[in-house]
Design brief:
The complex is a heterodimer. Chain A is an all-alpha fold. Helix content of chain A is 83%, strand content 0%. Chain A has helices at residues 2-11, 15-40, 46-64, 70-90, 94-116, 123-132, 142-161, 163-171, 173-178, 183-205, 210-224, 228-253, 257-283. The termini of chain B are far apart. By secondary structure, chain B is α/β, with parallel strands linked by helices. Classes of the chains: A mainly alpha, B alpha/beta. The interface between A and B is medium-sized, with 29 and 37 residues.
Chain lengths: 284, 234
């Protein structure tokens, strides 16, 4: 046991390990807050779709040779988020098809571009890294860490201030609209924030595993808790714990960060699922 | 002056008309039932009155001190709500959202209003319960309490008894009638249940090929009513 702590203490003397832990926990917090809303609005897959868009954006940025790829990725993802959520409010059936289309399309075009115009000798490694986020969280610099911290704080403040409105809009859009709430504006705001979170989260788990980060904590919390407030708080706490645990395990065991975090989330889901089932049985 | 006036309104989606020539007026304290065949545009009418859809033609005006956003709406339940983790108190309180504007939190006044609405609907003891675990009738009471939080004078109900058993249906109608008689709420209700519509309402709006609007007594004498009520009983 002391060996493990010594090993951890050693690793924590490196700044990049500390950065990874800070950013990882913050992103897990942000994605879980909005995860509840997304799952309930039947948009579980938007994380997947948008992350593929972000992947495509990254590929374009790499090909064009923009040094800071955030400048390309963020606006492209935000625009796609707005388009996706807009189209689905007008025609309900188009929603999931649109997500699938954009998701697969962006992934394919991104990979194609990277393949044709590749400047790196290790293409498979690059693609794998972007998709699964194996190393990028360990290569963050100080500015990126601060940017993530500031953005996360803004997201959390926004969520707290608009908590009641997010609830109203998620539970019943039509009713909220008749009561005079500007539903369209809030939906727009929510989709922009989700795009920002996804671009942030790509650093952590890579684009393939973002959906897991968004939906698992929310689904786990929904197994056990029965009101919106406790579900939200529980999924935030759970997500933070799983992210921290996943990062620590991946440091000690040398496993890929993203997959380890998701594995922790999956384990938590099963534990909560069992608790929920047992409780229901006892209740009867 | 009437609270809601529709003048020769054309209803429809995306520029395609579903129904033309809808004209009616709702006075304070009225109990209006909207009847008609499936697909005749009853729900479209309700959404247009609420401002969720723009009328394709004609005019809808509010009078008698009523403004848009002050109509309490009881929508049909959506699939999303069936597994939504929310307590009864949270849902009822969300009815106060419209009047909050941009301020982020509910006030003590809002909480009182929600508590009164729950008391009126006799669901105070359910306040901490989870919405998805309630019976159909209880869920409707919760949504009605939420509508009361938003409403000043008018309630608009979209098939409030859909999917309820006969006993609970009667309870629901009694509740709506007492809101109309005792609290002076104006009621507009979409109904499939002709018998109940003719029993409780004082005005009928029949949406269909040849629309009708007028007092219940007048409606009963029309061929339209005889035909429609006959079909309903089959």
């Amino acid at each position: 046991m002391t060996q493990i702590f010594e090993k951890l203490a050693l690793y924590f003397t490196y700044p990049f390990v500390r950065y990874a832990l800070i950013v990882g926990v913050l992103i897990a917090l942000c994605s879980s807050l909005f995860g509840v809303t997304l799952v309930l609005k039947r948009f579980s897959f938007i994380g997947d779709g948008l992350s593929h868009v972000a992947f495509g954006g990254m590929a374009v940025a790499a090909v064009v040779g923009v040094t800071n790829d955030m400048l390309v990725v963020l606006p492209v993802t935000v625009i796609c988020a707005i388009l996706l959520l807009k189209s689905s409010t007008r025609a309900k059936i188009k929603g999931d098809a649109a997500v699938a289309m954009i998701s697969v399309g962006a992934l394919a075009v991104g990979y194609l571009l990277m393949n044709i115009f590749s400047t790196s000798s290790n293409l498979a490694g690059d693609v794998c890294g972007t998709l699964f986020g194996s190393t990028s969280i360990l290569t963050l610099n100080k500015i990126e860490v601060w940017a993530s911290v500031i953005l996360s704080v803004l997201v959390v403040i926004f969520f707290i201030l608009f908590y009641n409105k997010i609830f109203a809009v998620t539970f019943d859009e039509d009713f909220a609209r008749t009561a005079g709430t500007p539903v369209g504006a809030y939906n727009l705001l929510i989709s922009v924030i989700i795009a920002v979170i996804i671009v942030l989260a790509m650093n952590l788990v890579g684009s393939l595993l973002i959906s897991a980060l968004v939906i698992f904590p929310a689904l786990s919390a929904m197994r056990v808790f029965k009101n919106f407030k406790s579900v939200t708080i529980c999924s935030a706490v759970l997500s933070v714990c799983c992210a921290a645990l996943g990062i620590l395990i991946s440091i000690l065991a040398g496993t890929p960060v993203g997959s380890t975090i998701v594995a922790a989330d999956i384990t938590a889901f099963f534990i909560f699922w069992i608790i929920g089932t047992v409780r229901k049985g006892v209740g009867k | 002056m009437a609270q809601i006036i529709c003048e020769d309104v054309t209803l429809g989606y995306d520029g395609k008309a579903v129904q033309t020539g809808i004209t009616f007026a709702v006075e304070a304290g009225d109990y209006l039932c909207i009847v008609g065949e499936n697909g005749s545009g009853k729900s479209t009418l309700v959404k247009t009155v609420l401002g969720l859809l723009p009328p394709l033609d004609g005019r809808i005006t509010f009078g008698d001190g009523l403004r848009a956003g002050e109509i309490g709406y009881l929508p049909q339940q959506t699939i999303v709500q069936q597994d939504f983790p929310a307590s009864v108190r949270e849902i009822v309180l969300s009815g106060c959202q419209g009047r909050r504007g941009f301020s982020p939190f509910y006030t003590a006044q809002d909480r009182q209003r929600a508590a009164r609405a729950m008391e009126r609907m006799e669901i105070t003891d359910l306040a901490g319960r989870c919405y998805r675990e309630l019976s159909g009738g209880q869920q409707q009471r919760v949504l009605l309490a939420r509508a009361l939080c938003a409403a000043k004078k008018v309630l608009l109900l979209d098939e409030p008894t859909a999917g309820l058993d006969p006993y609970v249906t009667e309870e629901m109608y009694a509740l709506v009638r007492s809101l109309n008689r005792e609290d002076g709420m104006t009621i507009m209700m979409i109904s499939h249940d002709m018998t109940a519509a003719l029993k409780y309402a004082d005005h009928i709006l029949h949406v269909g090929a040849c629309p009708f609007f007028g007092a219940k007594e007048e409606y009963i004498r029309t061929d339209l009513a005889k035909k429609f009520a006959g079909e309903g009983e089959k």
